[in-house]
Amino acid sequence: MFTISPSVRVRPSPYFEATVAAGVKSFTTYNHMMMPTGYGDPEAEYWRLINGVSQWDVAVERQVQLLGPDASRLAQMLAARDLEKCVTGQGRYVALCDHSGTLINDPILLKLADDRFWLSIADADIIFWARAIAAERRLNVSITEPDVSPMAVQGPMAEDVVASVFGDWVRELKYFWFRETSIKGIPVAVARSGWSKQGGFELYLMDGTRGTNLWDIVREAGRPWDIGPGNPNHCERIESGLVNVGGDTDDSTNPFEVGMARFIDLNIGDDVIGIEALRRITAAGPRRHLIGIVLEGKQPLPLPSQWSPVLRDGKRVGDMTNCVWSYRLNANIGFGLVSIETVAGDEIVVLKEGTHVAGRLRELPFC
Ligand code: THG
Asked: Could you tell me the pTM of the whole model?
């Protein structure tokens, strides 16, 4: 196997040593950092997330901090979702689009104060985008990457574990809301959040020298619930219909095509980047949509490294953007980004590595 060469460009996470101690076996890169992708037993890691509780190093979800008198104006220009009612302590899932309405990132926006926001970003250099927009619009705002590194605690038992560490107040947190606190002198923001549909929390560590401490506190607290290491779980997120922006989207995907219409507000100010294009796209009607695909066959297929063409009646109607063996459905499943006329129930064929695999479209989520 290959290894990732050490480089100051590929930064380790504050949890790196802790994940090595936990037996990490593979990494991917994301936001110029290494992110664990497995600990050697994918099926056990999957069921732990579905039935128990799992601890993830997601420090790669970097924060872009907007600070200053124009921070809130800039946040609203970047995000095509009405932030008027967003209050301090609240998070919102937002779409960042470019001027053509193409989706370029889907961060969680956290409001820390009237003049301070974090964009908790997916994999792209949004800091340059935010700085360019702020400079062109002559805004008074400072844009930095603060020392903040999320750890996720996910699964049906996550709430008990996080409550045992921080107190029962965490049980009252609403989705994406957060509170700044500390544990044994380690500053953290505790949010109800995370990239799974199994429930859970994210602990935004605000001191990168304390990663191992925080990891160990959560691991020890989780023992009664048999906590174990995991990572953003490809199988669970596909079963749950969670979109991976950058993986399930391409250079021309708009938010309506990938089920994000409910996070877009068209009646916000004309100074929101991409809003005119989003209105035009809405008026014209979307051309593609995201839908589930279940393939025939009872053998797990290898994970694809590129999109696979989808054919209906011998004609290409779009692409399969991901594919994974579903432990709950006992089939290979994935998302199709396909023409709007192609609908649930349609029989299709996917061209994978030169072979034809038959399948059928169905509604998302799978589970
Ligand atoms: N945690 C943090 N930052 C992140 C992610 C994360 N940044 C990048 C990426 N993940 C952002 N993507 C998502 C996508 C979806 C959800 C969370 C993060 C999510 N969506 C629910 C849904 O779509 O059904 C709920 C959305 C809602 O109702 O508002 O949970 O994981 N820190």
From this structure: 0.97
